[in-house]
Amino acid sequence: MPAISVDTFFACSLMVLLVLSAMAGASKLLYPQINNASDSNADERYREISKYLLLNTGTPSDWGQNWQTIPETFGLAKDNLASSYELDIDKVSRLNSENIYASSYAQLFTVLKMSDVSLRIEMKPVFDVIVNLTATFVEGNETVYEFEILTEKYGFRVPVELRCYVVAKNYMSTSSVIISNGLKYVNLTLSNNVGGPALLVVFARSVCNDKIVSFNFYPFAHNSLESKPKGSFLRTSPLNYVLNVSFAYPEITLSKVYALTFNYSSTLIQTASSNRSAAFKIPHFLDLSPTLIVVTGENSTAFFSEWTAYPQIPLQIGANFSDSATLSNVFAYTYIVTIGFAFYKCTFWLGGLRE
Question: Cα(238)–Cα(258) distance, rounded to whole angstroms?
Answer without folding.
Answer: 13
